[in-house]
């Protein structure tokens, strides 16, 4: 009997606690509702008007994620190149050891799981040398031809050529474009307005940048016959002695090839801008000299 009476008292006390907690919760909830009702709200006309839904013209437009990342990252130039950036682009991965070209031995760091690993220290040195060559060619008024015809290389080849006001071949190399350029390219060249009957004049590039030299044996042979220096990305399955300025790197990585093409075109653009500055400065000096001569004669 004592146990039953003790059980009843305990249950009664617990019920009293729960009811008190519930009443306290309801009091808090009612207070929140009252506070929300006390806040002034806008009229129905303002909510339904179209002007309130359209943001003002001063509101900044959201940028895409890709554009925001591209603007946040520091642009790659020949001066801030590092081995970590080359490795992130996959330029250290060569071909299988069964396809190894013995002439690439100085550029190979070792092998791992049957794949040759390229020493990126040599890649960095040769890439900077190629950038210096492209810069000097643009500084002296030469033209640069970018050649990249593999699937996925077309857009980056065109972008690199446009960046430095150069030329590009992104679809297919036409045999005879250099050795027989008057007949192969003459039909596509615009006629001379001063003498329409004369065959149009064609030009040959002063520097070639090959992004996939393995498929362009004819282009390399024509460039050698015309004494045109060649910058090429040479993988572990290609003989670097066949080109003038080899860059030991992976030629199958689209990101890596894009990085190399962008750095070389940026260096060429720098030389082009430097040339324009020198020409403008020379023109100003000539104007000053002519003005001094005219004042002396007067």
TrEMBL record:
One of its GO terms (cellular component) is mitochondrial small ribosomal subunit. It holds the Pfam family Ribosomal_S2. Residues 37-51 have a biased composition (Polar residues). GO terms for biological process: translation. HAMAP family: Ribosomal_uS2_B. NCBIfam families: rpsB_bact. This is Ribosomal protein S2. It comes from Rhizopus delemar.
């Amino acid at each position: 009997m004592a146990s039953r009476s003790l059980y009843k008292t305990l249950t009664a006390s617990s019920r009293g606690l729960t009811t008190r907690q519930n009443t306290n919760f309801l009091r808090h909830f009612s207070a929140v509702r009252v506070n929300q009702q006390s806040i002034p709200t806008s009229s129905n006309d303002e909510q339904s008007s179209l002007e309130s839904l359209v943001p003002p013209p001063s509101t900044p437009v959201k940028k895409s994620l890709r554009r925001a990342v591209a603007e946040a990252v520091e642009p790659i130039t020949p001066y801030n190149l590092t081995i970590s950036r080359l490795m992130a682009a996959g330029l250290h991965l060569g071909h299988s050891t069964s396809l190894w070209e013995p002439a690439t031995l100085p550029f190979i760091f070792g092998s791992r799981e049957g794949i040759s690993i390229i020493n990126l220290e040599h890649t960095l040195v040769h890439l900077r040398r190629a950038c210096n060559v492209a810069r000097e060619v643009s500084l002296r008024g030469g033209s640069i031809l970018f050649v990249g015809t593999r699937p996925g290389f077309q857009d980056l080849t065109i972008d690199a050529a446009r960046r430095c006001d150069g030329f590009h071949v992104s679809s297919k190399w036409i045999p005879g474009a250099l050795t027989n350029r008057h007949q192969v390219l003459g039909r596509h060249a615009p006629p001379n307005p001063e003498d329409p009957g004369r065959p149009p004049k064609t030009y040959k590039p002063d520097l070639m940048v090959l992004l996939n030299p393995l498929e362009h044996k004819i282009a390399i042979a024509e460039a050698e016959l015309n004494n045109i220096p060649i910058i090429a990305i040479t993988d572990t399955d290609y003989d670097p002695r066949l080109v003038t300025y080899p860059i030991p790197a992976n030629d199958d990585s689209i990101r890596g090839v894009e990085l190399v093409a962008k750095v070389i075109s940026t260096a060429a653009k720098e030389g082009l801008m430097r040339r324009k500055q020198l020409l403008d400065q020379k023109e100003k000096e000539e104007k000053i000299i002519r003005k001094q001569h005219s004042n002396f004669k007067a």
